Automatic annotation (TrEMBL):
<protein>
    <submittedName>
        <fullName>NUDIX hydrolase</fullName>
        <ecNumber>3.6.-.-</ecNumber>
    </submittedName>
</protein>
<keyword id="KW-0378">Hydrolase</keyword>
<dbReference type="InterPro" id="IPR000086">
    <property type="entry name" value="NUDIX_hydrolase_dom"/>
</dbReference>
<dbReference type="GO" id="GO:0016787">
    <property type="term" value="F:hydrolase activity"/>
</dbReference>
<feature type="domain" description="Nudix hydrolase">
    <location>
        <begin position="41"/>
        <end position="176"/>
    </location>
</feature>
<dbReference type="InterPro" id="IPR020084">
    <property type="entry name" value="NUDIX_hydrolase_CS"/>
</dbReference>
<dbReference type="InterPro" id="IPR015797">
    <property type="entry name" value="NUDIX_hydrolase-like_dom_sf"/>
</dbReference>
<dbReference type="Pfam" id="PF00293">
    <property type="entry name" value="NUDIX"/>
</dbReference>
Length: 181
């Protein structure tokens, strides 16, 4: 057994939905005791940082029901079954912004909430944007508005908590790092 590994004794699926699966695992802890873990299983997601030719970042604003408010975020979406993250990045870019890019650059991946969920997010940069004629539309239940902001304006949105999610904050920190190089 690995140093901190917890061995699953039993898994009970509570809910199996379109986006998440909820389960409760009974586990044996490294010290031999047992405990329960409530888990969210997720297919994974992609976020993309779109940069226009005039060096603005394309964001989407949308209502987030769990928070009961709107947030300004980088375009993002769930991986479809068997879909490569780079394909998801381009699909979401087109659906949410009406842009495409020839070669998005992979930046990194990270776990969004490892204390209770297995969702992994892949982050890409697209700085060769081209508008798409007759762009694919997004989900029927998705209502978004586009914003193009400078990095300074995005920082102000962070201070105002209009940008207030991890993937978008990570994207802004990444762009700040590039700016310093």
């Amino acid at each position: 057994m690995k140093k901190f590994e917890e061995k699953t004794i039993q898994t009970e699926t509570i809910y199996d939905g379109k986006i998440v699966k909820l389960q409760v695992d009974d586990v044996t802890l490294p010290d031999g005791k047992t405990s329960r873990r409530e888990l969210v299983k997720h297919a994974g997601a992609v976020g993309i940082i779109p940069i226009t030719k005039d060096n603005k970042i394309v964001f989407v604003e949308q209502y987030r029901k769990p928070l009961e408010k709107s947030l300004v975020e980088i375009p993002a979406g769930k991986l479809e079954n068997g879909e490569e993250p780079s394909v998801t990045a381009l699909r979401e870019l087109e659906e949410e912004t009406g842009y495409t890019a020839s070669s998005p650059t992979f930046i990194t991946s990270f776990y969004t909430s490892p204390g209770f969920a297995d969702e992994i997010m892949y982050l890409y940069l697209a700085d060769d944007l081209e508008p798409v004629e007759n762009a694919a539309s997004g989900d029927d239940d998705e209502f978004i508005e586009l914003l193009e902001l400078t990095l300074d304006e995005a920082r102000q949105y962070v201070n105002e908590q209009r940008i207030h999610d991890a993937k978008t904050n990570y994207a802004i920190l990444y762009l700040e790092t590039l700016e310093r190089m």
